[in-house]
Amino acid sequence: MSSLNLEALKKEAAIRAVALIGSGMHVGLGTGSTARYAIEEVGRRVAAGELTGLTCVATSEASDGQARALGLEVGPLTPQPFDLAIDGADEITPDVDLIKGLGGALVREKLVEVQARRLIIIADHTKLVARLGEKAPLPIEVLQFGVQSTLVRLQALGAVGELRRSSPDLHVSDLYVTDNGNFIFDARFAGADLAALERTLKGTLGVVETGLFLKMAERAFVAAPGEVREVVRGR
Length: 235
Ligand SMILES: O=C[C@H](O)[C@H](O)[C@H](O)COP(=O)(O)O
Prior knowledge:
By secondary structure, the protein is of the alpha/beta class. It is 29% helix and 23% strand. It has two domains: 3-130 and 214-227, Rossmann fold; 138-208, ACT domain (Alpha-Beta Plaits). Helix 1 crosses helix 2. The longest helix has 16 residues, at 3-18.
């Protein structure tokens, strides 16, 4: 499938999710190439007068900038629950467990989305997997300070991977730095107990957060040619 067609599918999924937003809602805005379409559609609906009194929190500097440029009201993260958060994902299981963070925004995404009454995922069909880790590595955000020591601890847990670079260009040796000033270790793990893996990783010194989003999402709109499929947790 051409990348142009995939973009059209991402947009279709985004439009379906944004249709769930109503006036006066407090909304979490995701990050990435699919979430961009959702933010664009929110902006369109606000500009058309279809939505009023919306307040938003963005999960990255990029999404914050896009939303503000569209005239959306964007504020800081407070303990106020979100009616809805809409975001993309890198892998989606049939029970809507997720790997997120290939776009580098996993920490802010988790901080926002854990407060969402409804977390709605949007994606094209290439993101569907039977098991997490099938295609994507697991992004783990780690502190810059002492990173080599953190990597030794992660490798001792069985992680195989590498620190993310800022560019796939082999001549660029700079490491990717997140909006929070941290590095990302893209890891592969053997083993099936992801909840246990998450607990172990969160207990590892130097680890800030992981891209495992387990039992957080309510549903995913997954667009394939000719249909947008709803994948619902617990169904
Ligand atoms: O850190 C980034 C996020 O988790 C994204 O939502 C995820 O990587 C999916 O991005 P995209 O829609 O560009 O495939």
